[in-house]
Write a structure and sequence with these properties.
Layout: H1 2-25, H2 29-48, E1 49-50, H3 52-65, E2 77-78, H4 82-101, H5 103-106
Antiparallel strand pairs: 1-2
Helix pairs in contact: 1-2, 1-4, 2-4
Length: 108
């Protein structure tokens, strides 16, 4: 039940963010919905992963400021959650809807 509520909250928040950005920029929802969904999904992916380039860069910067402190290299590890899977599903759905909406433009 908790996972279902989290998935529903994700499905409410992502379009809400898109709607708010659309009102601020005065642009149609479908015109930028895929881009915003992709950005949100990428942010969720970065926040759910450990290791990788960003962590290694931070470790090198910390290590360069202290000469006696050696940091171990972290291996990249990604642990997807229900939020990530819901965001990916929403992004794919929005991509399909965008292609359908602009089918005359894409397939003319």
């Amino acid at each position: 039940m908790k996972k279902l509520l989290i998935a529903i909250a994700t499905l409410v928040i992502m379009p809400l963010i898109t709607y708010i950005v659309g009102n601020v920029l005065n642009i149609n929802f479908i015109d930028y919905a895929f881009l915003i969904a992709l950005i949100i999904t990428t942010i969720i992916w970065f926040s759910a992963s450990k290791g990788g380039f960003t962590s290694n860069y931070t470790n090198v910067m910390a290590q360069s400021q202290t000469t006696n402190f050696k940091m171990e290299k972290e291996t990249f590890k990604f642990t997807p959650s229900i939020i990530f899977f819901t965001a990916v599903g929403y992004t794919i759905f929005i991509l399909i809807m965008t292609i359908y909406y602009y089918k005359d433009y894409f397939f003319s």
